[in-house]
Every structure is written in C-alpha cells, then in structure tokens.
Amino acid sequence: MIHAKPDGVTNAMGDQHLVASGSNPARIVLTDDHDLVRAGLKAMLSNVEGIQIVGEASNGREAVEVCGNLRPDLMLMDVRMPEMDGLAATREIKQRWPRVGVLILTVHENQDYLLEALKAGAAGYVLKDAPRTQLVASVRSVLNGESALDQKLSTQLLRRLASDLPAPVKSGARPKTSDSSETLTPRETEVLQLLAHGLSNQEVSRKLVVSVGTAKNHVQHIISKLGVSDRTQAVVRGLELGIITLPET
Asked: What angle do helix axes 231-241 and 151-163 make, rounded to 10 degrees?
C-alpha cells in the first residue's frame, strides 16, 4: 500500500532542491516491503531536525509512483522487494527525476551489488542494522551533497565502474555528447577531479586553500550543472563524459 503526504512545493521544472533550506525540511520517502522496517526507519528519522517523512512505499513500483507524485529530496530504498526490486526502481527514478537522491538499504556490503546500485544511480548505501546515528549521518551526507560511501570503498567501486566504460571515455577523451559538461568552469572541473579522488569538502578546501563554504558551493554547482543528485553520481557522470579520470592504483 502507498502512504503519501502530498505536501511540499516543487519548482517550475518539477524538481525540488536537494538540500532543505531555511524552514523547509528535507523530504524523504521510505521504501521497504516490511512494515516493521519502515516503522523502525520512521521512528529513527521522524524527530530529526530538518527531515520530514512525507511518504512510504512497499515495493519498487509503488516507490516510482510515490516519487512521481511527491518529488522528494531523498528515497530510502530497499533492494529485495516484490513487483519491482530496488535497483530497477532506482534506475527508473533516476532516469525520470535525476535530482531525486536515492540511498540504498541493504543487509550485506557486497561490492558487486553495491556497484550495480551505483550504476543504477544510487548515492550510496546504509546497512539495515546500522545504529540511528549512522543512519542519520548517511541521510544528511547525501542531502548535503557528501558521499554516503566509505572513501576506500567508493574508490574501489568507481574504479570498477570506470573499467566498464567504453575505451574512448576511459582514456579521457571528451565525447561529442558531453555538452552538459561545458558549463563547468575550470575550477569546478578541478573540484570534480578531487571528488573522484575521494576528498571531502573539508579536504577540498584545504587542497585549494579556500573556505569550506566555498568548496561546498563548488560541489553544489557541479551537482546542479551535471543534473545529478549527489557527489557520487557527479563523479560517475564526469567519468562517463570523460572530463575526469580516476587516480592510478
């Protein structure tokens, strides 16, 4: 059954801002086929400042429907569900509403599975048995454009993803279809390359000798210009376009 609260406001393009601002909380939809899991997630997140649970879905198909109706900032997405699994739902959501973030709920840290989630458009993952503090931290990370992946794991997954890309892209050649990347300034391209190396906003600020706020603004501009929802997918998009490369092992 679908549970949704049709509140919140979308802009003229039908997209919502990734990060809540001012008095507007970040809007989240919970997707899991087990009522108890959704209830537990709701209990852990409902009283968190700046976060609002606006809907629930019990399978991937319902998740796509709820996402289309509400355009939340973030979907918390289970993987194994009836009718449509979480990866298929994530893929469809990201194709139709690329600025909606998706955080995968999983039981195991299986790299093959996480790589498929990354390819589908997910920002990262959180374990179902994670403590409340870790769940909240992961949610906030994605909403703030940070990575919800461990730096070492992120680099490993991105390197595997890059190895699957066509040869011209892996070599760093700029595809003719990379028009969306033309709006990136040289500084933003430099920042995106640093994100591919796994640097946080704080580390980017130290590397470039700028304030953390300036580094964060660069990251948000990159995310917006590339039409993605988070820094993980910004790096994926940058690799696809051939405008950045991954560090050598």
From this structure: 30
Q: Is 67 left (phi over 0), alpha (psi -120 to 50) or beta?
A: alpha
Element (H, E) at 26: strand 26-31
Instruction: List domains and CATH numbers for the chain.
Output: 3-144 (3.40.50.2300), 154-241 (3.40.50.2300)
Q: Is the dihedral of CA 65, 71, 77, 79 positive or negative?
A: positive
| Residue 139 or 12, more confident | 139
Q: Which of 81-85, 132-136, 219-223, 242-246 has the lowest mean pLDDT?
A: 242-246
DSSP 184-229: S-HHHHHHHHHHHTT--HHHHHHHHT--HHHHHHHHHHHHHHHT-S
Other C-beta atoms lying within 10 Å of the C-beta of residue 39: 13
Phi, psi of 127 (to 5 degrees): -75, 145
Measured CA to CA, the distance from residue 37 to residue 40 in angstroms comes to 5
- DSSP secondary structure of 183-194: GS-HHHHHHHHH
Answer for the pair 28, 139: CB distance below 8 angstroms, yes or no: yes
**pLDDT value, residue 162:** 79
Whether residue 177 is predicted with pLDDT greater than 50 in this model: the reply is: no
pLDDT, residue 167, reads 54
Give the other-Cβ count within 10 Å of 211's Cβ: 10
